[in-house]
Amino acid sequence: MNINGVSKQFDLTKDTLRYWERLGLLPEIKRNDSGYREYSERDMNWVFYIKALRNAGMSIEALIEFVKLYREGKQTAGSRKSLLVDQRQDLEDQRKKIEKTIKYLDYKIDHFEDHTLNYEREKLAYDGNIQ
Amino acid sequence: MNINGVSKQFDLTKDTLRYWERLGLLPEIKRNDSGYREYSERDMNWVFYIKALRNAGMSIEALIEFVKLYREGKQTAGSRKSLLVDQRQDLEDQRKKIEKTIKYLDYKIDHFEDHTLNYEREKLAYDGNIQ
DNA sequence: TCTTGCCTTAGAGTTCACACGAAGGTTTAG
DNA sequence: CTAAACCTTCGTGTGAACTCTAAGGCAAGA
Fold first, then answer.
1. Are residues A66 and A86 in the same domain?
2. Which of A24, A55, A81, A104 has a Cα at 20 to 30 A from A72?
3. Statement to judge: residues A45 and A92 lie in one domain
4. With b meaning 16 or more CB within 10 Å and e meaning fewer, what string describes B14-44?
5. Per-residue pLDDT at A74
6. B7 near B13, Cβ under 8 Å?
7. What is the rounded distance in angstroms from the CA atom of residue B3 to the CA atom of residue A47?
8. Tell me, what's the pLDDT at A120?
9. Domain containing A17: what range?
C-alpha cells in the first residue's frame, strides 16, 4: 500500500508516517522503482501498534527503544517481552493517576459550593480519604 | 512559605511556579519587604489544585479560563462547574483508551511467540474481539 | 566586609511531536 | 504533450510548556 493509503487507513498524516520512520519507530519502508514507499502487511502492523501506544500516551522515546530491540532479532525476545510488560505497567500507572484525579474532580464537583478551600482537606480528597 | 518551600512541597520548579503565576494560573502572590514571594495557605491550595489538573492532562489554556471565571466571582459558578464536568469527561475518555490499550498489550504478551503478525487480527484484538 | 547563596525580572533557548514549504522527480487524466 | 496531482528529501516553522541565562538586589555566615 502507498503512503496515501496508509495515511488514510490510520488517520495519520504522511508527515507523521515519514517522521516515525525517520526516528526508527517504524521499520525502513521498502521503495518501488521510483523511490516511492510501499507499505507491506508487516509495516502496517507496526503502524497500527505504534499508533495504539502513542494514543495511550506512550512517549516516542520509549517506543524507539522497543523497536530497536525488536530489530536486533530473536535473541532479544526476553528483553522485548519484558518491555511489553513494562509498557503495560506504565499504562496501569497512568490509569491509576487518572482515576485518582477523576475522584478528586468528583469531590470538587460535589462540594462545588464550599468556597473555603483548605489545603489539607484537598489533599485528603485527592488521596481518596474523603468521600 | 517562600518559593523554595513551595517548590519542594509540590515537586515543581520555581520557574514553573513563576510561569504559572505570570500566566494567571495562580493568584498574584504577595511579596515581603524585599520583594520575595510569600505563599499563603490559599495560594498553596491553588498550587495543589492546578498541579492535580495539570497532572491529569488539563491544558494551561483551559485552566486559565477556569481561574479567570473563578476571579469573576459567584455569577460564573455555572460555567466553572460545567468546565469541571467537561474535564471529568475528558479523563473518562482517556481512561477508556488506556484500558483498551492495556487489553491489547495483554493480547500481545500472551501471543508473544506468534511472530506472524496479521493486521486484521491485531485490530480485532485491539477492539476486544479476540480473547 | 567578603563571599556564598538565596531571590528578582526580562528575555532568550529548549524539547517534543509534529507540520509546512521549497525544489524537484513521477504518474495519470485529458 | 502537458498540466494536475502525486511522491521524494531537506530544512525550517509551530505551539505548548517549560527552562535557562544574564544582570542585579538581598541575606547570612566566617
1. no
2. A55
3. no
4. eebbeebbeeebbbebeeeeeeebebeeebb
5. 59
6. yes
7. 45
8. 72
9. 1-71
**Alpha carbon of A77: minimum distance to chain B alpha carbons (Å):** 9
**Higher per-residue confidence, B10 vs A113:** B10
In chain B, the residue whose alpha carbon lies closest to the alpha carbon of A53 is B101
> Is the Cβ pair A55, B123 closer than 8 Å?
no
Q: How far is Cα A80 from Cα A83, in angstroms, rounded to an integer?
A: 5
Does residue A99 lie in a domain region?
Answer: yes
B92: nearest CA in chain A? A102
Residue with cell 504559572: B20
Note the pLDDT of residue B87. 86
ipTM: 0.81
- Among A29, A47, A71, where does a domain finish? A71
Residue range B63-72, pLDDT digits in tens: 998 888 888 8
Query: Which residue's alpha carbon is at the shortest distance from the C1' of D7?
Result: A36
What was the pLDDT predicted at B128? 76
